[in-house]
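ok so I'm stuck.
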Amino acid sequence: VLRRALPPFRRAAPGIALGVLADVCVVGLLALSMWLIVRAGEQPPILHLTFAIVGVRALAIGRAAFRYAERLASHDAALQQLAELRAGTFAALIPRVPGAIESHRRGDVLAAFVDDVDQLQDEPLRVRQPLLVSGIVVALSLVALALIAPIAAAILALLLVAAGSLAVWVSQRIAAAGDRALAEARAALTDALLERFSAAEVLAAFGAQDRQRARIAEAEDRCARAQLDRSRAAGLSGALLSLGAGAASLLILLALAPALGAGSGIGSGFGFGFGFGEEGGLSAPLFAAAVVVPAAVFEVFAQVPAALTARRLVTTSAARVAALTEAPLPPEIPVDPIPVDPAPGDVAPVDPARGDVAP
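replied:
not stuck anymore, here's the structure
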């Protein structure tokens, strides 16, 4: 089921590439902006800042433009695949309803076909693509930071692993049970609503309307509690990642402060003032950029815990869809309908392969 929810690579690749470009712009914009602010404080000739000024503008525009294009490309691919997945699920349910899945309530079948199938679009959008994009951008950021100061890249990598592992553990501890219960609660709510509308006259005749309303309210409360657990876990994960970003910037500041050189740095002949100082220390603009980069990297890395959280809900929905569509049919239910020759005067069926009236 999860494989059928993934669009082909040729349709998913543009969204992934645009997502990488958008996140690269996020990291580059913050780093270059800090570099420009500190370098401008040294009051060099304005021509020495022109490339940075243009770069900041380009990255700011690129971040919004690439993000918009990435949303269009990724959602277009996911929605096209969702249409195919929904049609395939419906075709798989046709021979199974109602005879082959009598153990499932109508609400379970309807929730699986509507809610759970729609939930599967999160697999390419909120699971696979964020993991790929964040992994690529974080790796590129660490390589760039290592060119400035290897110790800074090592500190950032260590805190990324520590804060990410802790955020995933907290999310797993708090929201895992709620994610599993959310799909069941949605199915129970759908089943209760169906029974309320389809059996309204019977419920009114026997005075059971209040009991049915209480059942609906209980299902709504279960859904709300599951959603609250997920929100609480997302908030704690975000707080841990923010704490990790602040700790990384502080540790990099303390680690690189002794290396802050007084020279103008490699490239001083060109007036750029970046690189290592004349005595082997970092220039002030590059030092400031290295200190502020972890904030942007952690912003990109925050997609990883969110993707792993979405993965649990997607897996639960896929299991519910598979339970309805992948189970073997009983031998008394034919897989293919038996062809029936039309009687004289009847309207002949349409051949879908030809698009015309079958002979």
